Amino acid sequence: MTEKRMLIVPVALVKKIDDNRGEMSQTEFIDFLIDSQLKEETKTQQYATMEEVRSFEQDIKRLLKNFLDFFISYGLELGKQSPKTEFEELTSKLQELEKDLAPEGKGGKATIKWK
Question: Mean pLDDT in the chain?
Answer without folding.
Answer: 78
